[in-house]
């Protein structure tokens, strides 16, 4: 399959308007068995409760049966199991759909095909869920645009319930621009219309992508590629007299403008553009702010002590100065993300404080290392150190509640931390290292 995918990638790159008429045959026994192997272990199960391990006990027979259903066009995805996860710093919960393992296999196979075709079409402003691109890359490019280009205004946009409101008709129309294989389109359509189960009842899905499914990220990228990326590149930027840039990660994006009038015009046009494709802006989470070299001066003229800030990919971006006194955009961990992580750590400690101390400290060591890998970037070390100190305080508080007698004084707790030290943060990502990203901005 890998050889065939490489050939598809070459054809897609050589002819941006080519329609692929025969793709479903790539979902064969060998490729689907490989998809099964590549899926992560010990993940939440769908409504039938089949785990990866259980499916793999009779893998050959199961895959043969799956391929037979695909060939006879009788394959239908099982409705996903609806569950809810807490929303960040809110009493509301976010819906999540957990597909059956067999459906995950098919979704992964289709996702590979779609990624092969569309990776050649996607623009450089898009970073989410793409090979060799990550959040740090998006942050580096955004930093370069604001510091090195003529950017004075930032439009921070939030799309209201994007994954729940993707229009199925438009989604299929976009797919048909590149895919003319009716069998593959039929399977994707069945995933979109597959529905979900909640409390024993089945519900239809007339809009949205199967959030939680393996196929959701690539479908989201395809939808926003046509709705947003191409429109911004071919219409908005060409109509602007000043400079204009966009950085998008999945449905989270920031647009930068040289002139305020063009930022305002874009904001009004964006609302109409999204409305056409059955999407809308979350007005309370969207704003246009003065940001850049002259933001400090603008803030003082308005009677404010500091320029406004904006959040993007878990960081609060603010205007600062270098040691030489020049303008610099700096970042710190978003207070919402920090509060959420601390709350999660507190709840875990509260439930597990009586467990083996080695297990508790090992869990927090691994958790902090993961946190550092993402948040330890240029300028953010003080914020990360503050987070580590708060984790230390939570440990002191809840380990002292393992019994009616206090286990620690602060002096004893410091000795305890010398035996079980929490890892120290150091900068993992240099925001000015653009060696990999240089092609995006040329």
Indicate the structural class. alpha+beta
**Quick one: overall form?**
globular
Helical content, roughly?
40-55%
Low-confidence regions: none
What is the arithmetic mean of pLDDT?
93
Strand arrangement, largest sheet? 2-1-4-5
Task: Please tally the β strands and state the result.
Answer: 11
Radius of gyration: 25 Å
Q: Largest beta sheet, briefly?
A: 4 strands, mixed
> What does the oligomeric state look like here?
single chain
What does this structure look like?
The protein is of the alpha+beta class and 442 residues long. The protein is 49% helix and 13% strand. The protein contains 17 helices and eleven strands. It has helices spanning 2-14, 29-38, 52-57, 59-71, 101-118, 135-148, 162-165, 168-176, 182-192, 216-239, 260-276, 295-301, 335-352, 357-375, 381-399, 410-419, 438-441, and strands at 80-86, 93-98, 153-158, 196-198, 201-203, 244-249, 252-257, 287-290, 310-312, 315-321, 327-333. Strands 2-1-4-5 form a four-stranded mixed sheet, with no helix packed on it. Helix 8 (168-176) crosses helix 10 (216-239) and helix 13 (335-352) packs parallel to helix 15. The radius of gyration is 25 Å and the shape is globular. 33% of the residues are buried. The mean pLDDT is 93.
């Amino acid at each position: 399959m890998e050889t065939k995918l490489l050939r598809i990638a070459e054809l897609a790159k050589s002819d941006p308007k080519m329609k692929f008429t025969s793709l479903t045959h790539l979902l064969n026994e060998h490729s689907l068995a490989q998809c099964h192997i590549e899926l992560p272990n010990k993940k939440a199960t769908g409504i039938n409760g089949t785990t990866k391990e259980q499916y793999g006990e009779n893998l050959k027979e199961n895959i043969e049966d799956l391929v037979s259903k695909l060939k006879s066009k009788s394959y239908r995805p099982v409705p996903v199991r609806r569950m809810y996860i807490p929303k960040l710093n809110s009493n509301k919960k976010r819906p999540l759909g957990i597909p059956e393992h067999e459906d995950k296999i098919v979704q992964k196979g289709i996702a590979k095909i779609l990624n092969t075709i569309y990776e050649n079409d996607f623009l450089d402003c898009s970073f989410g869920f793409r090979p060799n691109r990550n959040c740090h890359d998006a942050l580096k490019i955004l930093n370069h645009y604001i510091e090195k280009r003529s950017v004075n205004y930032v439009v921070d946009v939030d799309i209201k319930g994007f994954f729940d409101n993707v229009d199925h008709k438009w989604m299929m129309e976009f797919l048909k621009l590149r895919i003319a294989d009716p069998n593959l389109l039929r399977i994707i359509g069945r995933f979109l219309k597959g529905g979900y189960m909640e409390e024993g009842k089945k519900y239809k899905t007339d809009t949205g992508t199967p959030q939680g499914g393996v196929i959701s990220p690539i479908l989201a990228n395809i939808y926003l590629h046509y709705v947003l990326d191409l429109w911004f590149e071919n219409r908005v930027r060409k109509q602007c007299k000043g400079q204009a840039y966009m950085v998008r990660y999945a449905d989270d994006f920031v647009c930068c403008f040289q002139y305020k009038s063009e930022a305002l015009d874009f904001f009004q046009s964006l609302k109409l553009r999204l409305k056409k494709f059955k999407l809308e802006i979350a007005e309370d989470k969207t704003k246009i702010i003065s940001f850049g070299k002259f933001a400090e001066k603008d803030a003082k003229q308005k009677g404010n002590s500091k320029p406004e800030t904006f959040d993007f990919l878990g960081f609060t971006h603010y205007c600062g100065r270098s040691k030489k006194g020049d303008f610099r955009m700096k970042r710190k961990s978003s207070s919402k993300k920090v509060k959420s992580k601390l709350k999660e750590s507190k709840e875990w400690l509260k439930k597990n404080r009586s467990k083996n101390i080695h297990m508790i400290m090992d869990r927090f060591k691994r958790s902090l290392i993961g946190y550092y890998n993402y948040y330890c970037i240029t300028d953010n070390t003080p914020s990360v150190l503050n987070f580590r100190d708060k984790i230390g305080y939570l440990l002191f508080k809840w380990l002292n509640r393992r019994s009616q007698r206090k286990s620690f004084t602060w002096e004893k707790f410091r000795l305890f931390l010398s035996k079980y030290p929490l890892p120290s943060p150091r900068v993992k990502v240099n925001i000015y290292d653009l060696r990999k990203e240089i092609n995006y901005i040329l």
